[in-house]
Amino acid sequence: xxxxxxxxxxxxxxxxxxxxxxxxxxxxxxxxxxxxxxxxxxxxxxxxxxxxxxxxxxxxxxxxxxxxxxxxxxxxxxxxxxxxxxxxxxxxxxxxxxxxxxxxxxxxxxxxxxxxxxxxxxxxxxxxxxxxxxxxxxxxxxxxxxxxxxxxxxxxxxxxxxxxxxxxxxxxxxxxxxxxxxxxxxxxxxxxxxxxxxxxxxxxxxxxxxxxxxxxx
Length: 217
Fold this sequence. Notes:
Blueprint: H1 7-17, E1 19-23, H2 28-40, E2 45-49, H3 55-66, E3 71-75, H4 80-89, E4 93-95, H5 101-109, E5 113-115, E6 117-118, H6 121-129, E7 135-137, H7 145-152, E8 160-162, H8 171-176, E9 182-184, H9 191-196, H10 199-214
Parallel strand pairs: 1-2, 1-9, 2-3, 3-4, 4-5, 6-7, 7-8
Helix pairs in contact: 2-3, 2-10, 3-4, 4-5
């Protein structure tokens, strides 16, 4: 069973890994197998999206069964009620595609890392000033690493986690551009891999991503 972590410990875990694996699965068993496979490859921070069927039960099962082996968070959170329910289920960090002040507030109240989504410099600064621990730059797929570098130039104090379109081939560039960590979804855990049960390939993909991050740190 997982011991309660401080917010600083959660953040250290996220940054040490450098990869937040975003997983959308159809069952808790499928997700636990995927989480175990990528953890073997070095990725031990996973975000279970609220779009996963019966997401709260899945978060609880993954948190209980994998314990401290992985840091479990919740994604696609749009309101404080969902954030609190996920935290009670075992989520240690909360990610949103947008910036909602009530989500940030409840996460700070209970000492959990909160990562709201934003895109423009104005939105990113507003999220930071509202109490974000990191800002998820989303979607990053259309702008690439240069956009992160451009944002960090006038706003170096804000830790960014770009998400969208990131893979083992461009991960190095995003870290070099100043990203604190990277949100990685289908390029790591795709629906086709989950359906086929090819968990060996998940471990290999995770190792490639971790190697890419470590190569520039």
